[in-house]
Known about the structure:
Layout: H1 17-27, E1 30-35, E2 38-43, H2 47-54, H3 60-71, E3 72-75, H4 78-81, H5 83-90, H6 93-96
Antiparallel strand pairs: 1-2, 2-3
Helix pairs in contact: 2-3
Organism: Flavobacterium xylosi
Protein name: DUF4288 domain-containing protein
Amino acid sequence: MNTPTYKVVEGTNTASPEQLEEWKATHGEFFGIVIEDKVCYLKKPDRKALSFASQVGSDPMKFNEVILKNCWLGGDEDILTNDSLFLAASSKLDQVIEFKKAELVKY
Length: 107
């Protein structure tokens, strides 16, 4: 049996290994954002979440808030409410929203 390894995060509202496994089975790859002694877990955004976030268009903070809330699996909710923690998490969202590279071929 292949046992996955996860970074051990000490702090508030950390997920158990069983919870991590459940999220992996349900959502595939997911992410943890660690900020000091706090952590939040996020799934990759789907088209619905990206569409909803893009409707706020010109407000990048609102875009980040929509993505963070729609991708939230669990963790310390201070990250959602504390501006300093929110901004730290926001700086990592571009890595959560990763796109596959495409190539255009003209025939």
